[in-house]
Design brief:
Blueprint (H helix, E strand, L loop, with lengths): L1 H30 L5 E8 L2 E4 L3 E2 L2 E9 L8 E2 L2 E2 L8 E8 L2 E6 L5 H4 L2 E6 L1
Parallel strand pairs: 1-4, 3-9
Antiparallel strand pairs: 1-2, 4-7, 5-6, 5-8, 8-9
The structure holds copper (II) ion.
Length: about 120
């Protein structure tokens, strides 16, 4: 009886810890720049050039540099940078799952003009 109820309690405690871990994970990842993968993104009219074509799953920090003449942003994994002025840059940390991660510039017309693509996440 005791071992069973103890096991049940441990089980729910482990489940609770797992939930907390999932919630705390991305927040901790965003604060720790030493962990995860770094990708440099160069934005121009109307194209993104990524320093890596595939990344391991997990925390990925994108440093987006606008080398174009128009403001651009960069959206991936449900998050996006602020609008980045020409000559400026912005950082964006997201947690990516295995598969394909689509990215784009959300300025009207830019994605259609070519500012989009997919990143392979292994
Ligand atoms: Cu753009």
């Amino acid at each position: 009886m005791l071992p069973l109820s103890l096991a049940a309690r441990l089980g729910s405690a482990a489940a609770l810890l797992a939930v907390v871990g999932v919630v705390a994970g991305p927040a901790l990842g965003a604060r720790t720049h030493a962990t995860g993968t770094a990708v440099t993104v160069t934005a121009t009219e109307f194209h993104f050039k990524l320093s890596k074509t595939s990344v391991p799953h997990g925390s990925v920090t994108f440093t987006v540099v606008n080398k174009g003449k128009l403001p651009h942003d960069f959206k991936i994994g449900g998050k996006k940078t602020p609008l980045i002025k020409p000559g400026k840059s912005a950082k964006l940390t997201v947690t990516l799952k295995k598969g394909k991660a689509a990215y784009l510039c959300t300025v009207a017309g830019h994605a259609a003009a070519g500012m989009k693509g997919t990143l392979t996440v292994k």
